[in-house]
Specification:
By secondary structure, this protein is of the alpha/beta class. The protein has 3 helices and 4 strands, in the order βαββαβα.
Length: 99
């Protein structure tokens, strides 16, 4: 099983499609499955969580052999800025406080 964090974004969708095309079992960690563009495949398992939430990561990592991070790591503006993305994340007890 391969876990793809950020599998619903531009890069993540490309990675996800390649893995599925190769017949590999994939789990996608997404913060909001209701709004995620979901490729349809029996090879994809969807799990809800945020990379800032240790409990969610623990659940997502179960049975996983490989982790691929396709999380947006560039400085952006507007809806792609790190502050905006962090502010829209689901609050959890392990989410760091805002500066």
């Amino acid at each position: 099983m391969i876990l793809v964090a950020g599998g619903t974004g531009r890069l993540g969708t490309l990675v996800l499609n390649r893995l599925v095309d190769q017949g590999l079992a994939v789990r996608v960690l997404t913060r909001n499955p209701a709004t995620a563009a979901r490729p349809v495949s029996d090879q994809i398992e969807w799990t809800t969580g945020d990379v800032g939430d240790r409990d969610a990561l623990g659940r997502a990592f179960k049975g996983v052999d490989t982790v691929v991070s396709a999380i947006h790591g560039f400085t952006g503006t507007g809806s792609n800025s790190p502050a905006t993305v962090a502010a829209t994340a689901t609050p959890t007890s392990s989410t760091p406080p805002k500066p």
